[in-house]
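User: Structure tokens for this complex, please. No commentary.
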Amino acid sequence: MNPDDRQLIADCLNGQTAAFGKLVSRYQDRLYNTIYRLVDHAEDAQDIVQDAFVSAYQSLKSFKGDSQFFTWLYRIAVNTAISAKRKQRQPLPIQVGRTGDEGIDPVDPSEGNRPDHALERADEGRRIQAALQRLSPEHRAVLILKDMEGQKYEEMAEILGVPIGTVRSRLHRARLELRELLNGDGES
Amino acid sequence: MLSERITRVLTAFVDGELSPRQQAIVRKLVRQSPEARKLLEELRQDASRLRQLPRQPGSPDLAANVLQRLARPPIVISASNAAPPTSRRRPALWVATAAGLVLAVCFGWRAWFSKPTNSEELVASTRPQPEVRLPNPGERPHEPAHPTTPTPERVVRVPFVGPVLPGPEERSPRVHDKQPGAHQDLAHVLMGPPAPEPRDEKVFAAPTQEMEEFREVPILGLGLVLGFRELSSPAAQRRLVDELHKADAFRIDIRCLQAAVAIDRLQTAFAARGIGFVSDERTQARRQFPGSETNYAIYFENATAEDLGAILQILHAEDRKLEAKRKGSAQFDSLALRELTPADHDGLTKILGIEVRPVEPRRVKSLPGLDPRRPLSQRTAEQVEQSLKGQGPPRPMPGRPMVRPPDRQALLVAYNPVRPRPASAEVKRFLDNRKERSAGTLQVLLVLRGTKK
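Assistant:
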């Protein structure tokens, strides 16, 4: 485990609860991004992340330290998000983010300030996000953890609480399924 | 059509989890198979698109919200305070052994709780104002001497008002006693570095050491307890007037539905009497932050009994109007009025974080228009009565208060769960700028408590 995280957790368990605030600050954005992509709903993602941190604090003594703290935190949050998505009857449509158009990146000056380029990327982002949301929660989770978070099989297995072979299988099916959705969407 | 074995290898290649030897095999495969090459390229592009999705930042309030949830005090019940509420509702034994005292306490108690309320929420205590041991902001967190030895303290018997968030491994309030430092210090130290945004710190300042349970209203001792609805009756008005003439310093606790709404209406009512609010930064931030449950305290020294009566009447009149439109929309429930005690004065000092020395009212030799043969108190009483009956000076219409430029100021501060910064600049400025008190004015500490969950 990250030595810094280990120290913060030890401090927290010793009564220096300011340490938990540091952990929250350290991982909140990363965790939120993952959960947001999972549930595709800003407020739900915020609630899940908050709940995950609170649950983590409450169970801090049960954290054995044999994995990364973030992995353990992820597990709490991702499982909650997957459970939440399972309960939904229909996949959510793409939701515009709070700040406006989702997926519009800042214009890249190196490309000569091409407005159409930004729009293309935004459109592509919406398409991939829409396809992502049509996957099952389990398939969506593995793609997000692998491609967006760069997690290894072992970490993903721990987060999801499944064997590594299951992670490989899910990734395999998820990639093919995503490909089919994008093909059916008119992409080449 | 590619076999599943091949597609598995291709997807694993995209995952980046193959050994160098396995990667070499895949590269050889795609050189030999256009179909495999095409699929691999598409899968890699899909993965790239996923990686390029913009990262969604969390809300700037996310960390603060987490910390706020964790900072809510859990239920702490010590053995001495563990008497079940029902025992207090059967005073028969008490009446038998101390009939006079218990009857007086129960009368005040029932007057306070005259409206049907959730009995679990409103637990009146005859004990002295309990203290909750929470460290001051900046104070070093208390290190428990022994994990199983609870720190001696007087604890508040608080009704449940929200999610119980015990510290690590805690599953009951008793377990909490083993690690009193685990969460008692949480309130202020969680706001330590890395510091949140300044506005967040003002809103989510550490709960004060003196934090009370929001809906618990301690018995304040014998005084006057009135339901706002009673203000329509002349008898209640007379009782209020009589009480306001017993002293020149009072504490008034007002119960309302939602403090966030009620404080706005109080401000309007005060403005109608020419009294403007002055607040510190934390209080202003709490008022602007939606959803923050806050109780407020208002301190002023230069209002007359007439002013107070008029303010209460304005609030009551507007409530009646709202109630007529929609049942249950009245904000103000009841008030408890009593003389300001030395303990209240100490409490005021703690609320404001600075010693408060009330400005003494100037001695009056004679006032123009005042009949020296009639006692001042009687004249004031008549004015208050007239005001309450609507025969006094023109009152602002409910909802349309008369606009008067404020010539006096009242200090509005958050009272629970946060307090102003100790000796905040705004509080100091308010205290330093106080003018000489006019004769007949009162020193008042008004506490506004919301009861709605």
